[in-house]
Amino acid sequence: MASRLRMPENGCMFMQLSLKTRVNLIIAVILTLVVAIGSVLVVHHVRKSVAEETRSALHLAWEMVEASHLQGPLPDEQAAAWRSMLERLGQLRHVRLFILQDERPLPPPPSPALPDVPAWFARLVQPPPAILEQTIPTRQGRGLQVRLVADPADEIAEAWQETRLFLGLILLLAGGCFAALYWVLGRAFQPVDAVLGGLVALEQERYDHRLPQFPQPEWFRIAQAFNHCAGELQQTRADNCRLTRQLLKVEEEERRTLARELHDELGQVLSGIKMLALSIKQQRPAEPTRQAACLIVEQVDHLFETIRAMIHRLRPLMLDDLGLCAALGALADRWRQQRPQVRIQLQCDPGADDFPAGHQIHVYRIVQEALTNAFRHGHPRHVRVRLTVAETPRPRWLHLTIHDDGSGAAIPPLRGRGYGLKGMRERVESLGGRFQVTTAPGRGFTLSIQLPFEEEENDDHPRHACG
């Protein structure tokens, strides 16, 4: 039977996940946020560091240029030397220097070449462009035009190497933390899975299920309470089965006694009355007396038919005289007479007559009630009753299957208002059997029952299955 433990459908998808999954997702989100915030802080720090380093190099080069400017107009013999010295400043890291003379325009600042740095990282940490221009006068000409352009390419490349190492370390730590927490949570939630499995077992009425003894104190107490509850339910089920079996036994004994008394006592009295009426009729009395005798014979015959039907309802005498298969065959024949338009097929294994005599009446009652329900509620065109014996030698099982192609049922039948199926189930469980119902709207109705030939010794808790 499928588990009936369901999450409410009106909740969000996240709340429908298991607790373990939700905790893992929350931890994953928190670690992702930590990594994201750490990455943002690292990028911000790198951007600031690159800007400061570039600005410092640019200001150093600018002070050297400014020192040349303060010396005033340079003579021609010193201009070439100063120009060579300034050009050497262009070899400084993070600074590009351009020197032009006269009216020629200065070239545009170069774009930094970063072949090993991702474009997204370069865009994030690259500082705003910084350009400084100065004119160094000479005694002849318009002077030297000097342009200093900040070039953070080298600094960005170095920052990328450090940042990649740092981010990789953060990701490694976050992944390690998540793996460790996942393992710890998995170990911590193992009792939860065991408890859920135990609740499903109780829902399926497997009261012999027990939880292990957990090492954690809280789960240990929960397991103790669960096992105690399951044990009480198991004992209650066993007591109810024994009580039901005893009540059914008493009921069948009363039915048998009443049937025998009707057959022996009342039958003999009616037979005597009929014989007296026939003897009066044979004496050729007056017409009123003869008509009265004929009326008495007719009424006695009617009472015979009524008593015979009552005896059969109380106790099928054929069951005691000819066995289970013959009694079921007679039952099927009566239904064929009442429902000639329905095909009733009976297949009975001869080994079914070896079923314990005290329990055969229960099999008969189950088939009787199942056929009554089928014709009353399902309106089938074909009913099949099959009775077989399992091949396993010990313990042997009697398999009873009753199938009809009627309308079926739209709700779990055992939860309905009727007591027919519940009564059959109680009979089966009292004998330590297994009971299962398969049905669906428009798919017919199938009743599968398994009964042991003999109960296992010292079995205080009979077996049963869910319907």
TrEMBL record:
Annotated signal peptide: none
InterPro entries given in the database record: HAMP_dom (IPR003660), HATPase_C_sf (IPR036890), HATPase_dom (IPR003594), His_kinase_dom (IPR005467), Sensor_HK_TwoCompSys (IPR050482), Sig_transdc_His_kin-like_C (IPR004358), Sig_transdc_His_kin_sub3_dim/P (IPR011712)
Gene3D superfamilies recorded: 1.20.5.1930, Histidine kinase-like ATPase, C-terminal domain (3.30.565.10)
Location of this chain's protein in the cell: Cytoplasm; Membrane
Domain HAMP residue range list: 186-238
Enzyme class at the top of the EC tree: transferase
Record flagged with keyword Oxidoreductase: no
Gene Ontology molecular-function annotations: 4 iron, 4 sulfur cluster binding; ATP binding; metal ion binding; phosphorelay sensor kinase activity; protein dimerization activity
Keywords in alphabetical order: 4Fe-4S, ATP-binding, Cytoplasm, Iron, Iron-sulfur, Kinase, Membrane, Metal-binding, Nucleotide-binding, Phosphoprotein, Transferase, Transmembrane, Transmembrane helix, Two-component regulatory system
Transmembrane segments: 23-43, 165-185
GO annotations of cellular component type: cytoplasm; membrane
Protein name stated in the entry: Oxygen sensor histidine kinase NreB
Lineage: Bacteria, Pseudomonadati, Pseudomonadota, Gammaproteobacteria, Methylococcales
